[in-house]
């Protein structure tokens, strides 16, 4: 069920900040799939994603921050799009990001500015 709110990014931000990390990874995995979450987290095995989702392990703070940003962006898109569209959006070339996929931009990010740029691209996608 898709819920439409005036500013889905505000609700997404609240959820990204408040959710325990394991619950956040579980929801992100449902939206994006374990392979894409593993890619965003910089790991090869989806088993590590399962460990994060079950609370057995925690990745580095950098990875946690990246996955929280990814969750916030995915939740913003989820206000209007189905999981398959969100997955395709994260993986596809994005003209707002110089034709780099949002997933790659987030994974290779060295600053919070990239997450802001990816969020701006998500808002532009929703507005189109």
From TrEMBL:
Q: What name is this protein filed under? A: Uncharacterized protein
């Amino acid at each position: 069920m898709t819920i439409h709110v005036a500013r889905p990014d505000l609700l997404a931000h609240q959820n990204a900040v408040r959710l325990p990390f394991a619950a956040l990874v579980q929801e992100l995995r449902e939206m994006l799939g374990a392979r894409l979450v593993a890619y965003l987290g910089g790991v090869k095995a989806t088993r590590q994603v399962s460990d994060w989702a079950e609370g057995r392990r925690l990745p580095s703070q950098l990875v946690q921050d990246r996955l929280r940003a990814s969750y916030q962006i995915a939740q913003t898109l989820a206000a209007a799009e189905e999981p398959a569209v969100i997955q395709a959006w994260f993986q596809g070339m994005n003209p707002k990001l110089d034709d780099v996929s949002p997933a790659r931009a987030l994974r290779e990010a060295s600053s919070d500015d990239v997450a802001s740029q990816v969020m701006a691209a998500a808002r532009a996608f929703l507005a189109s």
